[in-house]
Structure formats: C-alpha cells, structure tokens
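Entry 14. Ran structure prediction on the chain below.
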Amino acid sequence: MFAKVLIANRGEIAVRIIRACQEMGIATVAIYSEADREALHVRLADEAFCVGPAPSSKSYLNVPNILSTALLLGADAIHPGYGYLSERASFAEMCASHGLVFIGPSPAVMELMGDKIAARRRMAQAGVPVLPGSDGPVRSLAEAVQVASQIGYPVMIKAAAGGGGKGMRLAHDQEELERFVPLARAEAQAAFGDGSVYLEKYLENARHIEVQLLGDNSGHVIHLGERECSVQRRHQKVLEEAPSSLLTPAERARLGEIAVQGAKAVGYTSTGTMEFLVDQDRHFYFCEMNTRIQVEHGVTEMVAGVDLVQEQIRIAAGEPLRWTQDQIQLRGHAIECRINAENPDADFRPSPGVIQFYHAPGGYGIRVDSHVFSGYEVPPFYDSLLAKLIAWGENRPQAIARLRRALEEYTIEGIETNLPLHRRILQEKAFQDGEISTTWLERFLAGAHGQRVNGQLVTWSADGGHSLNTAQTEGLVQLHQQAG
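Output, structure tokens:
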C-alpha cells in the first residue's frame, strides 16, 4: 500500500480523498493555489504546498509544479479526483515516467474512452448498443446534412473530445443543423483544443442512467448498480439518485451486464462509470465512459456500502477486488443534491463571496460532503460546487422526505445558492412520481419565460439578457471565423 498520496485537486473531492487516505493510514499531501491558502483541504492534509496563483491554468493544471511537489515531498502516488487532470492520459503517462502511480485507469484506456468517436466504435464492437450516428467526425456541413437525413431529425451535435455539455447542440431540422455545427465546433475548439464534432440521433424524453464499475488489474470487473442522472440543466447534472426509479430488477441486471461487458472489452481498471441513454421503449444506448471517480459517487456508496475512493486506491496499489458480483447487495435508496454558489433566479449567475454563516443538516441517513464553513470565502476562479447533500432511505419516498427535511435545515448565508431550487424540485409531483427526463428540469425552469436560443433552452434574467454561455459561444464563433 502507498505510504503517501498527493491529491491533485481542491474543494470537496480533495477533502473526500484526504479522509479516505486517513482511514487507510496513508499520509496526504494537498496542493493549493494562492486563492485556496485557507481552504479546508489544506488544513486537513498532513502536508500542503502552494503550486501557483489563483487561475487553474497556473496552479491545479500546472503539471510541472504538481509533479515537482510530489517528488519533493516523497509521494508514492497521485490521486487526481474528478475534473482538472483526472482524464488526461498525458498526465498519467508523466506520472509513470517520474515513478509515481496515477490512481486511475491506464493511459491507453483513458485515451481510447476519452475520444467519444473511438469509444462508440469500440463499444459497438463489444456488443454494447450505441445510438445511430456518424461513423466518425463530420468534416463538412454537407456531410453533416447527409448523415442527419439518414438517421433522422432531431440530431445531437457533440464534441469528439468533449464532455460536460460543452460543444453540444440540438438540431431539429437542416436549418438548425447548418447554424449549430459551427457553434459546436467553435466551442469544442475553445474547450478541448479539438473542434471535431460528430452526430448522434437525439432521443426524445430520454433518461440518463449510468452504471458504477470497479475493475482490478486481474481483469475482474463488477458493477455496483446504477444511478439516475436525468435531472440536468444544459447537460450538467443537478440531482442524482440510486437506484433508478425506472428500471425493473431484470433491466437493472441486464444494464449492469452490458456495462461490465464494455469495461472488460477495453481492459478497464479502477473506478469508472458507463453512461447510457434510455429511450421511451426502455432501450439502452451507450453514451460515454467517465474514467474517474464521479461527483455523484456518494449515492452509490450509500446503497452499496462500498467506499469507492478507498477501493480506487487499493486497485491502484495492485490489490485485487474484494468482492464478487453476487456479493454486492444494494439496499434502500439515496438521492443527492449538488449545492452550488449560484443564483437560479438570475440565470444561475455565480455567487462568490464570504459565507457569513454555515449550518449543515444532520440526522439519520444524511451525509454532507463539503469543504466550506462559516467565514470561508468562495473564490470566483473555480467551479461553484459547495457541497453534496445526500439522503438515504429504505425506499424512494422516505429518501425524498428525509432530503426535503435536510434541505429545510441547510443554512448558507452571505452568498446566493441553489438551495431554494432543490426545495422546489423535491416538491414537484412529477419528480416525486419519477416522471423525469433529461429535458424535464429545463422545461420546469423555463415555465412561461423560457426560450430556445442557438439550440439551447435558456431562461431570461431580470435585465432581459440571455445566457452568458450563449453569448460567449457566439463570440467564439466570430473569433473562429476571423481566424479562418
């Protein structure tokens, strides 16, 4: 087992990893930017080292400084958490070349599954259902029009190197397709350094369901059930739960088998998540694979009774999985709310600032993963996630009731948060009945004042301005066109 692990991340996931390491008797090294000097993960780690100024590009993405810190302080391994360097095959390779273990899958698998087009092809070869779409990147508008006419509208334009909703546009007809392909390409180029896009058939009222996987270095792969992630805004998850209220036991078992089949086909090791879209006829289609720990891993831990971060570390250290598939028994239901520093009533504008008062809820079945406290200053440079509030119950209605009670207790003063939105979501009968889809939340948010702009459903703020994301994207297209 490792003696010392450097955590190449910040926020709640850095705190989560430090706590897992402490329970395993592993010393920890925190890295931090100048803006995070007083952060909780810095205080909890055995050692901490500043790797650069506030911008992520100069600190949490500063690979030379991170590797130098790991070597200087004698770390055996690096845990990347999620985001940042967690899915960068080149970073994993650099860790290995410096004698450091990257806590995650192999660089080859990361590179394969990080290429959405290559991943689709490989999964299709492995017998995993994939959505109808282009065989590769569409190289011209004419090719895009031809592919779309073959698979039928509506179609989703997606970045080949992307994720997190960047470089995605929904086209309902040829006119929208010709308008949105340049938008998606420009956004993908800006976000990932690769403007390649491909097309997939868009499923109306689809459900987003993902399967949690664990694989060791001996080829043993198991799943720990699924998570329902259909409550989304602009392709970003807002609320997740396990298990899905949609699936029957037989469908659950089949989906798990399909995910394991796909993971084995690429020799997957570590924690990982296979994401699927489910249509109204209950057909499963591979969407993508996340080769890292997920933000929402806690809901699976609550129903499966497995510490996924600790298992990830054990696998990286060469240990075999400690369970067979039939030993995994899911119990009860868990739901997670992502608590963000943002104002839902002002088009989700970020709300950095000082938290004047902070009180987290408690009680049986309640878990809060967070890095904030009273007096903490939320910096404007990073993701707005403050905490993950998770409620477990013996069944879904009990989990909802417990989560509603916890949301009423949760108090964060000094900045705006999305706590009121989560309270509204849990009061909605459609959510309580499990009648959700990937577009449900956006329809709920839009109400009487929503409008579709550039292929995205957006809400209008009080000053009449539309989504900053849309405006930025249009600017990127103009710059892209000017650059030729």
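The mean pLDDT is 91. Will compare against last week's run tomorrow.
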